[in-house]
Specification:
It contains ten helices and 13 strands. With 307 residues, it is α/β, with parallel strands linked by helices. The strands form three sheets. The protein has a five-stranded mixed beta sheet. Strands 11-10-9-12-13 form a five-stranded mixed beta sheet. It has a three-stranded antiparallel beta sheet with strand order 5-6-7, with no helix packed on it. It starts with a strand and ends with a helix. The structure holds adenosine-5'-diphosphate (ADP), magnesium ion and zinc ion (ZN). Adenosine-5'-diphosphate binds next to helix 7.
């Protein structure tokens, strides 16, 4: 396989790499708070910013690896499989039916493939660690909560590109408002932003989630409670997922997964409680060790036409 550019766009981070198969030849990371840009500016301005930062990252990668012939991008939104357009993005509000693949192909003169960020990460993790005979469900705990399923060795986008939207399973009817327009969605509790909201509700203070993790390390009771809440909510969603799919390997990644030790016990307890006996303890919950390289590898691989 030819080296290809893989990009993992998130609400908070843009990761880019040049990958050949599962080997990363070049890697860079840009902190780009697209989520705030979308909340504070017009959709047109936000879109130009996303294009500008993505273009800049690509140009840097191309200057190191001029031999690349394709670009794959994981984007946090619902991608319409018929048109390739991004229909909507709960964490990048305001964007509607934008054509990232089309706009970038025109600007860069390279073929660009765009897929849902979590589906791309699922594929990358599958290439790195998957068992060919088994499905793999990936759950990304980042700015939001995304999910992707690999079934029979292939990404499973669903009929409308929206399969595995586990972040929008409702775990608390009538609960916290969500960027998708609903209330009480899992991602309002079990994402990095969700933990910050939980901590703020408990303490009256808004802190970055990495700092709340530091407090948890010092056994701060409110910080620990915010992470426990995330663990419980995540387990509710994962129990639904297991009951529907009977998938054995569940891989958890994303920035918040670095704080898994504070979520783990509450998660396991709630999962044991919610699962029906025949499904109990049949799963492997795996915390990603790839440092989120999965998104880059999956995106690059998909763009090179290997799906
Ligand atoms: P996205 O894909 O949405 O950009 P990431 O998966 O990159 O998100 O995760 C970024 C988020 O992870 C940050 O918003 C931050 O709050 C959170 N984060 C970073 N480090 C830690 C940590 N050590 N513990 C908990 N959360 C963290
Ligand atoms: Mg991400
Ligand atoms: Zn939602």
């Amino acid at each position: 396989m030819r080296p290809a550019i893989g990009i993992d766009i998130g609400g908070t981070n843009l990761r880019i790499g040049v990958a050949q198969g599962t080997t990363i030849l070049y890697e860079n990371r840009f902190t780009a708070d697209f989520s705030s840009i979308c909340k504070q500016h017009s959709p047109q301005f936000a879109w130009q910013e996303i294009l500008r930062l993505t273009m800049g990252a690509v140009q840097d990668a191309v200057s190191h690896h001029p031999e690349v012939k394709s670009i794959g991008i994981g984007f946090p939104g619902f991608i319409d499989p018929a048109s390739g357009r991004i229909a909507q993005s709960p964490n990048l509000p305001g964007l509607r039916s934008v054509d990232l693949a089309g706009d970038l192909t025109e600007l860069l003169r390279l073929p660009v493939v765009v897929e849902n960020d979590a589906l791309v990460a699922a594929y990358g993790e599958y290439l790195l660690h998957g068992e060919p005979q088994k499905s793999l469900a990936y759950i990304g705990l980042g700015t939001g909560v995304g999910g992707g399923l690999i079934h029979a060795g292939k990404p499973f986008p669903g009929d409308h590109g929206i399969a595995m939207e586990i972040g929008h399973l409702i775990v608390d009817p009538g609960g916290r408002p969500c960027g998708c327009g609903n209330q009480g969605c899992l991602e309002q509790y079990a994402s990095a932003s969700g933990v910050a909201i939980s901590y703020e509700k408990l303490s009256g203070k808004y802190l970055p989630t990495a700092l709340i993790a530091e407090l948890a390390k010092q056994e701060d009771a409110l910080a620990l409670q915010a992470f426990r809440q995330a663990g419980i909510s995540l387990a509710m969603g994962v129990a639904h997922l297991i009951k529907i799919l009977d998938v054995e390997n569940i891989l958890i990644g994303g920035g918040l997964s670095q704080a898994w030790m504070y979520m783990k016990d509450a998660f396991q307890q709630q999962l044991d409680h919610d699962l029906i006996p025949v499904l109990k303890r049949k799963n492997r919950i795996i915390i990603s060790q790839s440092g989120d390289k999965g998104g880059i590898i999956g995106a690059a691989y998909l763009s090179a036409g290997h799906h």
